[in-house]
Amino acid sequence: AEPEYSARFTVPVLWDKKKNTIVSNESSEIIRMLNTAFDEIIEPEYRGINFYPDELKERIDDINSWIYDTVNNGVYKSGFATAQSAYEQNCRALFESLERIEGILASNEFLLGSRLTEADLRLFTTIVRFDPVYHGHFKCNIKQIATDYPNILRWTREIYQLPGIKETVNMEHIKKHYYMSHTQINPTQVVPLNNGPDLDNPVVKPTARPY
User: Fold this and answer.
1) For residues 39 and 48, is the Cβ–Cβ distance under 8 A?
2) What per-residue confidence (pLDDT) applies to 1?
3) Is 43 exposed, middle or buried (0-12, 13-18, 19+ CB in 10 A)?
4) Which residues, in sequence order, are bridge partners of residue 22?
5) What is the per-residue pLDDT for 103?
6) Does residue 153 contact residue 131 with C-beta atoms inside 8 Å?
7) How far apart are the two ends of the chain, measured CA to CA in Å?
8) Which of the chain's ends, N or C, has fewer CB atoms near its CB within 10 Å?
9) Is residue 97 a contact partner of residue 71, using CB atoms and an 8 Å limit?
10) For residue 55, what is the enclosing H or E element?
């Protein structure tokens, strides 16, 4: 890390407290590091859990590729578009991919079957924000998760209800970050009330231990 750095910064950041420096600020790298690097210090029951197993790496990389381009990054490409044509192109591509995901989850518990993988975790962070943030703030408003994608909604609830996931989702913080920091999009900084669909109910139990 550069002590005198004062330009734009991004999150997430993985920080080394001993060396006082940034390890990485690239989310795709951080999620791989968190997958196995800290097994020695976590509770024994969670050690050895691998969300990027060797036998699924190729399929995970493939699905990550188009989901990142059109969904994870697609909401930003739509929301920050400064031309109508760019907005429409990226917004339509986003919803084409959501339809594709809805189809996958019509027959699969998770994106790659009955096992929770890195691909699910990467997508979850976008979907959990979709209705309360991206639908309005980024104009991704052709459809909503709550009313138009029952399989994605079931999948979102199932992941949200897994041990330790709910505690990482602070919707008030999420909404305030987006609606109050992007003043070029929302100059009034007014934050909407809606928090998206109820993810606590109904209860969705995994068919088996998903990891």
Assistant:
1) yes
2) 66
3) exposed
4) 15
5) 98
6) no
7) 35
8) N
9) yes
10) none
Regions of the chain with pLDDT less than 70: 1
Detail the DSSP E strand segments found in the chain.
Answer: 14-16, 21-24
Cβ-contact 145, 152 below 8 angstroms: yes
Supply 71's token pair.
């969904």
Angstrom distance (rounded) from CA 5 to CA 205: 47
SS3 7: coil
Quick: pLDDT tens for 44-83: 888 899 999 999 999 999 999 999 999 999 999 999 999 9
Question: Are 110 and 59 within 8 A, CB to CB?
Answer: no
Token output for 207: 């068919």
Helical ranges in 114-170 per DSSP H: 118-129, 135-137, 145-148, 150-160
